[in-house]
């Protein structure tokens, strides 16, 4: 769905542009060196917008040095503290994320909104199932999609009444069906860009499953302008998961897609080890490549006809193939080095095109 365009530092989201990957640091924002190192690792993995928690004035001051050392837009995440929000804007935040309900009353919200207006930066407002007001929870009998919608519309209208419309919206729940219902509904009601996310999604395995179901459904509906996969753990994993969700939905074509078979009684070589190793080897390749790792020559090349290159296992050997055609046979122990060589060669060729 085509949303309004919003500029965040050196990127523009919305207006039917590609969905951008966002993540959030889990370092202490005051630790400039540690935070910059984490942002660079995230950037290397494919993160396109980064958010840092700004709980106090000292963290807001650190944003200036952080911003000078990174090249992706920097978003400040603020709760409860209007002064920290204003300081974050003064220190170069490209966008701020606030909850108008907890910033301290109308005057303080107006001060933050005026600072954002003067700096020409957007504000993300959102509803989160974990921080809905008691009134809304009572009215809707819990954190339902309706409760989230009412809360986020309240936040949006607060900013609009202050003649501010440089807005990004999020509406998050840890419940997948509530999350999907709420995003589908809000997409019909406003034309602001939507930041997708399942909140408090859990540790890696569950976070990826919940996020893939919710965001996959929304992205396939044409909803979403940025996304974050929330993972309890290393945020670099969030970025890889977000990349894979976008790739699986056909929303972005960057990065390597591994097509590997589940193996069966015909397989006589260690396909799992080869697939894992190739996945790690290609993790930071940004250009689109399809690599097939198949257990046998009976169905291998045929099943992976769409792959750029691939391997099909045989007894103590492997058949290397490209675009479904067998190229040569190699000894089992030469499969990995040979595949890596072919991948690098193809990546170089495509880079030069
Ligand atoms: Fe079995 Fe071969 Fe298919 Fe893999 S490619 S699942 S080994 S038949």
Automatic annotation (TrEMBL):
Q: How is the cofactor bound?
A: Binds 1 [4Fe-4S] cluster.
**Superkingdom in the source lineage:** Bacteria
Instruction: Enumerate the Gene Ontology biological process terms.
Output: isopentenyl diphosphate biosynthetic process, methylerythritol 4-phosphate pathway; terpenoid biosynthetic process
Listed pathway(s): Isoprenoid biosynthesis; isopentenyl diphosphate biosynthesis via DXP pathway; isopentenyl diphosphate from 1-deoxy-D-xylulose 5-phosphate: step 5/6
Q: Which GO terms label this protein's molecular function in UniProt?
A: 4 iron, 4 sulfur cluster binding; 4-hydroxy-3-methylbut-2-en-1-yl diphosphate synthase activity (ferredoxin); 4-hydroxy-3-methylbut-2-enyl-diphosphate synthase activity (flavodoxin); iron ion binding
Q: Which cofactor does it need?
A: [4Fe-4S] cluster
What this chain does, per the entry, is described as: Converts 2C-methyl-D-erythritol 2,4-cyclodiphosphate (ME-2,4cPP) into 1-hydroxy-2-methyl-2-(E)-butenyl 4-diphosphate.
- Which family, according to UniProt? Belongs to the IspG family.
Q: Identify the HAMAP family for this entry.
A: IspG (MF_00159)
- This chain's protein is named 4-hydroxy-3-methylbut-2-en-1-yl diphosphate synthase (flavodoxin)
Q: Please state the gene responsible for encoding this protein.
A: ispG
